[in-house]
Amino acid sequence: MDADLSPGSGLSSSRRWSILAGVYAFGCATLTATLLSNVLGVFAEVIGLPAALSMPLLASPALVAGAAIWWAIVERRGAYTYLAGAAFGLLTALATGAAWTVRFVSIWSVEMLAAGPVPLLVGVVLGATALAGTLVGVPFAYVRRRGASRSNSPTTANSL
């Protein structure tokens, strides 16, 4: 598999990798939301999400945020580093959490966000997702680095 992923699609390599990063971020966010479902289930119920689809719906902003952030941090600059991968994961997780925090505030107001244990719950969830995001961004950066190094190397009998 080369760095272009699917050369016949008409998209540039950077765009394909950015879309793939968004899909990867969505998958990781869905897994993280499922692991945090005890806390996030209550949150989903409070903001009116259907129970059956609440975890994938909570992860859905990561699809768009992941693609945009990967393009901005990694592809646009050509920075295929582990630090850029970790920053991608962290910023994608925080953007996803921020999107749902804004949704919560739009329904319940800022006063409700500051009431009782809500700030602690928001902090725990954002902290856990930020840590998870940082950790899952590094393997994707590894895959991208390998793809970039293989596409830049000359073709030899061993690389075919």
UniProtKB/TrEMBL annotation:
Do the record's keywords include Transmembrane helix?
A: yes
Domain of life of the organism encoding this protein: Archaea
Q: Which residues cross the membrane?
A: 21-43, 49-73, 80-100, 120-143
- Name the keywords, alphabetized: Membrane, Transmembrane, Transmembrane helix
Under what name is this protein listed? Uncharacterized protein
Name the source organism: Halorubrum rubrum
